[in-house]
Design a protein that fits this description.
Length: 181
């Protein structure tokens, strides 16, 4: 069917709730990086929506760059080894870097990415994620900006996909079981 709402179990975060949270995060980031040049790095493709909205909610000058990564291996056991599909165009030496993600699930992607970026000699590397799942707590990693700690369910929308679908929703919802069963 082409009817998206039939695929959803319920709405987790409305557009209004997301907008308010993004404004809150942006205000905090503006304050924390006052007087410094910030490079925001979006992780394709899930972070596209949060990057676009967060960047527009910031009042400071920022530059934007993108990375695309993919986890090695398949199934439930991930080695945490990540392959770079598209690297940054920007030299990180001396830069203040903020990685922007839609969700931290196991935390493996981001813990690998953070140490990869740290090794390039930036002044600082911090993380901003809209959603964080409970599993992420198992990975020892400092996440400075978290929008929502979300339930351990199949979440889609606002950048988050299931088989590349549902990214375009302007809210975040849980997928109805019949879709993935
Ligand atoms: C998703 C999500 C994060 C990552 C989190 O990306 O956008 O980048 O998984 O998972 P982890 O914490 O368990 O490592 P995905 O690999 O699905 O690619 P996408 O952003 O293109 O959807
Ligand atoms: Mn992603
Ligand atoms: Mg995905």
């Amino acid at each position: 069917s082409n009817d998206v709402s039939a695929d959803l179990a319920h709405v987790l975060y409305t557009k209004e709730e997301i907008d308010a949270k993004v404004a809150e995060l942006a205000a905090q980031i503006d304050k924390d990086y006052e007087g410094r040049d910030l490079l925001v790095v979006g992780v394709l493709k899930g972070a596209v929506m949060i990057m676009a909205d967060l960047a527009r909610a910031l009042h400071s000058h920022v530059t934007m760059d993108w990375m695309a990564v993919s986890s090695y291996g398949s199934g439930t056991t991930s080695s945490g080894v990540v392959r770079i599909l598209k690297d940054l165009d920007t030299d990180l030496m001396g830069k203040h870097v903020l990685i922007v993600e839609d969700i931290i699930d196991s935390g493996l992607t981001l813990s690998w990415l953070k140490s990869n970026l740290v090794s390039r000699g930036p002044a600082s590397v911090e993380i901003c994620t809209l959603l964080r799942k409970p599993e992420a707590a198992k990975v020892k990693m400092d996440v400075k900006y978290v929008g929502f700690d979300c339930p351990n369910e199949f979440v889609v929308g606002y950048g988050l996909d299931f088989s590349e679908k549902y990214r375009n929703l302007d809210f975040i919802g849980t997928l109805a079981p019949h879709v993935y069963q």
